[in-house]
Amino acid sequence: MAEPRGTARDPEAVSRFVEHFAAQLVEAGLPRMPARVFAALLASDTGLLTSAELGGQLRISPAAVSGAVRYLAQQHMVSREREPGSRRERYRVHGDQWYEALTNREAVIRRWEDALREGVTSLGEQTPAGRRLAETLAFLEFVEKEVEAMMERWRAHREERFGRG
């Protein structure tokens, strides 16, 4: 699934972008290979590449592509699709991948909140550890509400700027 015809690209400039952006993602905590695969998909006009295309572009093995895609799919940053009429898979990055990834984090935050509530009850809110857990819980509850409000504002902003997705 090569880039559309008529799209002039400097492969070296694309490669530099992919590696630079991947390095930023790694610095933020994403594992190196998933960061490289994600950046390559993001830099693709179609947002859709096969394992062979990713391997060739990034000079990595099929196993490295598979592991990276598995990680990215678990994080809701890419999706897998079957190539029509083939058993080959293609991997797609969507325009709303940041929204999906952040929404997935909300579920994790809710599980942390549940565990912290249990911890506060177990330790007692008046103990130093219980107070620390209660403050952490309050922070996460605050963050959850703020993220929810921010996502509503983002949906409105995205529609205004890019139209219905």
Concise synopsis of the structure shown:
This protein has 165 residues and is mainly α. The protein contains six helices and three strands; from the N terminus they run H-H-E-H-H-E-E-H-H.
Q: Would you kindly provide a written description of the structure presented here, covering whatever features stand out?
A:
The protein has helices at residues 11-27, 32-43, 51-58, 62-74, 97-123, 128-162, and strands at residues 48-50, 79-82, 89-92. With 165 residues, it is mainly α. It folds into 2 domains: 11-92, Orthogonal Bundle (Arc Repressor Mutant, subunit A); 97-162. Strands 1-3-2 form a 3-stranded antiparallel β-sheet. A hairpin with a 6-residue loop joins β2 and β3. It is elongated and about 65 Å long. It starts with 10 loop residues before the first helix and ends with a helix.
